[in-house]
């Protein structure tokens, strides 16, 4: 039911899409159910007043109705889906005058790691975001595929090892929203959840300041230990995150000879796409 209580613009659009599609499909389902019950009663064996036509086989009027209405509904659904597929594309940036907050997400077994590259901090099983600010997610997985989902903010998306997916969300109201893995990934799946804490910008900045004071650092050795499968991990905050840690996780399964140029080109293209800046590298990447 969290899907029907959205707290962000993307979640609200998806709720409206679900209700619209449901309503259009019920235009066929409800009449069919009612007519089935009516026909069963009307043409029961004991009703001698109903017309008995054992040789009846065709009615043009009925054929027109039963084919035209579903076809019209399918066409409308097709147009709606075509439009929303583009407008709700997970990688499409949210239009806003506020600069997005970037969060790099790594699905571990069985916990979530959130890295804030612009602030140099990270957290495990806790996602802090400012209200009214677009959140630009970059997602990957250490090993098993997982599905990142905050139902009240919208859009489930997969995180896969060796791959880099993107997601853009926004929270319009302060609150604590449940986040989870919605794809079974092993024995720790049921406890692989996190709290999304949406606060004012001032409170978010205060959370970042507290995170920077953490005595824990997320260097590569610490990450390797963190990546070891474990369950029910407590919330942990890190300061001094190793540079390019997320990119190293993405390229972990690439051959050493291919890793550097491929990752550099991909990261440059992503940076250009997000900032809208122009670079000579863009032509080479394309």
From TrEMBL:
Q: Name one GO molecular function term.
A: cytochrome-c oxidase activity
Question: Which positions fall inside the Cytochrome oxidase subunit II transmembrane region profile domain?
Answer: 1-92
Q: How does it sit in the membrane?
A: Multi-pass membrane protein
Q: Which domain of life does this protein belong to?
A: Bacteria
Q: Does the record's keyword annotation contain Metal-binding?
A: no
Asked whether the keyword Repeat is assigned, the reply is no
Where, subcellularly, is it found? Answer: Cell membrane; Periplasm
Q: Which UniProt keywords apply?
A: Cell membrane, Electron transport, Lipoprotein, Membrane, Oxidoreductase, Palmitate, Respiratory chain, Signal, Transmembrane, Transmembrane helix, Transport
Instruction: Give every Cytochrome oxidase subunit II copper A binding domain span.
Output: 98-210
Residues spanning the membrane: 17-41, 61-82
Tell me the GO BP annotations in alphabetical order: ATP synthesis coupled electron transport
Q: Which InterPro entries match?
A: CcO_II (IPR045187), CcO_II-like_C (IPR002429), COX_ARM (IPR010514), Cupredoxin (IPR008972), CuRO_UO_II (IPR034227), Cyt_c_oxidase_su2_TM_dom (IPR011759), Cyt_c_oxidase_su2_TM_sf (IPR036257), Cyt_o_ubiquinol_oxidase_su2 (IPR006333)
Q: Which GO terms describe its cellular component?
A: periplasmic space; plasma membrane
Main location group? membrane
Which family, according to the similarity comment? Belongs to the cytochrome c oxidase subunit 2 family.
**The protein, known as:** Ubiquinol oxidase subunit 2
């Amino acid at each position: 039911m969290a899907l029907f209580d959205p707290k962000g613009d993307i979640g609200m659009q998806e709720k409206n899409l679900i209700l619209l599609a449901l309503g259009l499909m019920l235009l066929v389902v409800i009449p069919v159910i009612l007519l089935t019950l009516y026909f069963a009663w009307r043409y029961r064996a004991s009703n001698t007043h109903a017309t008995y036509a054992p040789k009846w086989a065709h009615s043009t009027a009925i054929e027109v109705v039963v084919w035209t209405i579903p076809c019209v509904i399918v066409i409308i659904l097709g147009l709606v889906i075509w439009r929303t597929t583009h407008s709700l594309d997970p990688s499409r940036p949210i239009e806003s005058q506020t600069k997005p907050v970037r969060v790099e997400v790594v699905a571990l077994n069985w916990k979530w790691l959130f890295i804030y590259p612009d602030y140099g901090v990270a957290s495990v099983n806790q996602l802090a975001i400012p209200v009214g600010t677009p959140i630009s997610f970059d997602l990957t997985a250490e090993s098993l595929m997982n599905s990142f989902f905050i139902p009240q903010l919208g859009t489930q998306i997969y995180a896969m090892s060796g791959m880099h997916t993107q997601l853009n969300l926004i929270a319009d109201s302060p609150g604590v929203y449940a986040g989870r893995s919605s794809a079974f990934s092993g024995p720790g799946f049921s406890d692989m959840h996190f709290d999304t804490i949406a606060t004012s910008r001032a409170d978010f900045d205060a959370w970042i300041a507290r995170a920077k004071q953490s005595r824990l650092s997320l260097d590569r050795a610490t990450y390797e230990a963190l990546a070891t499968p474990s369950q029910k991990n407590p919330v942990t905050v890190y300061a001094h995150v190793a540079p390019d840690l997320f990119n190293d996780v993405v390229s972990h399964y690439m051959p050493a000879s291919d890793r550097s140029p491929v990752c550099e080109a991909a990261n440059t293209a992503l940076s250009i796409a997000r900032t809208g800046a122009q670079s000579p590298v863009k032509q080479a990447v394309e």
